[in-house]
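Section 5: illustrative case.
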């Protein structure tokens, strides 16, 4: 709740408040609440303060909140944030689309006149200039394709060797840029071991606005189901989205006219049991179908 209210304060360009007290923050954010909402805010505030600054009776003198109470707290936090930031459709079947819009608002990239159903990111000029300078430094002076081989879970990652194989197929006509996040050093080390082509270049340590700028300049982005995949869609870069253990019907790229989803029935459905969603497996997606899909986009 504290983070939600502080995000509202920042969104409305009000002075920052250095406080954990939810009532002080609510007043600073000019959030109007009903009597019942104020009572609920008070309960959350008491639990929060007791947990953060324990008294003589222990961490939570009134006892731990029940599971039902915690769900009420979370729903209330979401309601406050979406109501005052303007994302009422957060849980109405377009969660992934609103996620793009939220990301853009937080990063101050999004055009606030755009409806959440059709989100777009407007990339800051400074980020574009920074990325262009880096491209010049790396001597990338022809059209390029981006690759985002990372993902939050290993079961969402198409094999790195497959990404590199696709890149090698494209090198004759395009430069190939592999993007690695700060927490994907292991994946980058593996990339450096197995990538032998000088035309395949790694981008690391870039900010999210720079990521959006880089992908917006690409001819195509090939990505696992991940944050960069959603950024790619939000800057209208034609995207190949590779799905494994997550539900593509919930997290699909929202404009299927320019994006393509790949996912496969898992050959080990009866025995695997590893993934969140056992009936699909990202490793069953073949190199040949991905390169065919990319060629149709280029």
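Designed sequence:
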């Amino acid at each position: 709740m504290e983070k939600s209210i502080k995000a509202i304060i920042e969104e409305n360009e009000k002075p920052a408040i250095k406080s954990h007290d939810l009532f002080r923050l609510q007043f600073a954010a000019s959030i109007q609440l009903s009597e019942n909402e104020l009572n609920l805010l008070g309960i959350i505030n008491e639990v929060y303060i007791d947990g953060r600054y324990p008294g003589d009776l222990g961490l939570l003198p009134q006892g731990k909140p029940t599971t039902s109470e915690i769900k009420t707290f979370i729903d209330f936090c979401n309601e406050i944030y979406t109501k005052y930031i303007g994302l009422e459709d957060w849980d109405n079947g377009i969660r992934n689309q609103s996620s793009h819009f939220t990301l853009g608002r937080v990063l101050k990239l999004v055009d606030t006149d755009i409806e959440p159903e059709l989100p777009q990111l407007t990339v800051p000029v400074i980020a574009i200039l920074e990325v262009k300078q880096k491209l010049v430094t790396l001597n990338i002076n022809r059209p390029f394709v981006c690759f985002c081989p990372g993902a939050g879970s290993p079961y969402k990652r198409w094999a790195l060797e497959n990404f590199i194989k696709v890149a090698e197929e494209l090198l004759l006509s395009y430069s190939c840029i592999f993007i690695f996040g700060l927490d994907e050093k292991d994946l980058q080390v593996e990339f450096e071991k197995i990538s032998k082509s000088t035309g395949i270049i790694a981008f690391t340590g870039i900010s999210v606005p720079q990521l959006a700028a880089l992908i917006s300049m690409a001819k195509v982005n090939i990505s696992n189901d991940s944050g960069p995949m959603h950024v790619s869609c939000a800057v209208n870069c034609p995207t190949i989205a590779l799905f494994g253990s997550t539900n593509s019907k919930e997290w699909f790229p929202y404009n299927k006219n320019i994006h393509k989803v790949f996912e496969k029935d898992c050959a080990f459905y009866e025995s695997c049991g590893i993934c969140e969603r056992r009936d699909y497996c990202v490793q069953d997606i073949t190199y040949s179908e991905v390169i065919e899909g990319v060629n149709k986009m280029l």
